[in-house]
Design a protein that fits this description.
about 90 residues; mainly beta; 1 helix; 6 strands; about 50% strand; globular
């Protein structure tokens, strides 16, 4: 996949954003093959206006402002290595 986006995970009262963007399939495509990787997240309170804005923006752009943020949490995630068109 050519498109990359920051992954967002809700954890209790915080939203955690992957510090680095990961590959994603295009809107109408389906994951054909995946791999796993360790992903570092930076977390912000859900009630914070900035976290709401970042969440909205994460759907259409890479969140470059997260690149130098501290790591609050690490998790393993699955990301697509190959996508195919579903139509």
């Amino acid at each position: 996949p050519r498109t990359r986006r920051n992954r967002v995970v809700a954890r209790g009262s915080v939203l955690c954003f992957s510090i680095e963007p990961v590959p994603v399939c295009e809107k109408n495509d389906v994951e054909a093959e995946t791999e796993s990787m360790k992903c570092k997240y930076h977390c912000l309170p859900k009630s914070d206006k900035k976290s709401k804005k970042l969440f909205e923006d994460s759907h259409w752009r890479i969140l470059g402002e997260l690149e130098n943020k501290s790591e609050d949490w690490t998790d393993t995630l699955s990301y697509p290595t190959k996508c195919f068109s579903s139509h």
